[in-house]
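Data card: per-record layout.
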Amino acid sequence: MSGSSTTTAGALSEKDRAFIRDAAEGGMAEVKMGELGQQKATSQDVKNLAKTLQDDHQKANDELTSIAKSKGIELPSGMGAHESAINSLENKQGQEFDRSFVKDTIRDHNQDISKFERAANDLDDPDLKAFAQKTVPVLRNHLSMAEQASKSLSSEKSGKSER
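The structure for this 163-residue chain is written out next.
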């Protein structure tokens, strides 16, 4: 059975292929970050952010996997360049972990929003364009949550006296 916009791998443009690869690697990294945040965060705001990241990015990964499969594209199995950021986070504890987690999430999501907005306008494949368009509001929500968690962490830090 073929869908309304089934495209073979050979028919996808290089920019569409690059988007799939980058989105898959980034999505896997976000799920891993979410798991890590739920395990290691000390702030409830950070734990909530981590849970949302994990859930939303897993859902997006599942959708992207389905699209890629329909196009005959095999997704990468690793996180690519995101691996080192995850490894760095794994070595942090307590408030240092929380601050780094939130900072990384803000940086990543600012970059991701730009990439997905460009993809929504520039990709050739209609399924990938629709996926990018649908994902931008989710990424914006994550950015907003991360910025709120950052404010919360800053007020906790300034509210506590140092020894």
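Known properties of this structure: The radius of gyration is 17 Å. Residues 126-159 form the longest helix (34 residues).

See the next section for split statistics.
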